[in-house]
Predict the structure.
Amino acid sequence: MEKEKINITNKLGLHARAAAKLSHLANNFSSNIFLLFNGDRVNAKSLLGILTLAASVGNDIIIEADGDDESEAVSGIKDLFERKFDEES
Amino acid sequence: MKIKGVIITHGELGKAIIDVADGILEQKSEIECFRFGWDEDGTLIEKQIRKYLNANKDSGIIIFTDMFGGSPANLSLRFNSPNVEIITGINLPGILKFLTYKEKKISFKELLKIIRDGARDGISIISEYLGDRKNGKRKN
């Protein structure tokens, strides 16, 4: 299992369009992928699941992946967060 | 079986829900929109919908309507068949579930339940939600 803590840096946090991008990316991996925040654990492949975290800018969340492509999954998702979901230039 | 969506609502509501869902998902979905105007009796859109359904007989069709008992839903009931299902009271979370699950390898019935549950779970009283979160009762 691969785990990584990441800080949310985009202004709008995990809002609808960011959650859509994240779940879309997560669905490209065969591993089970979860996001952990504030005592909650949601499926990263579910747009509505991600939205229930209500995670904002400045919050730390944990990405957890388990499966054949767990390393690629975690690094790919981490990269999306670091790129601020391509919504701030 | 390919699954297709149709939305029939009062006024522009259906088109607005689809436009917002497409904006979130950054795509142009192929959901067919029909508006039921205040001054219409439904004759014209019934013809249009029948034409659409006849042209898509090989697909599973889900008709979304805004409110059980309203004219769009009442009209939709006429189209119910093994491959045409109707979901009433649709909202943005429900449409997002449809658009993100329709290509998955699940049965037509399973997809209907996922959409219905997604739409229902999208409605919260925030004080209750935060209370459940505090007490560890929240489901994801």
Summary: The helical segments of chain B are 13-25, 43-55, 71-76, 92-101, 108-121, 126-134. Chain B has a mean pLDDT of 93. Chain B has one domain: 3-134.
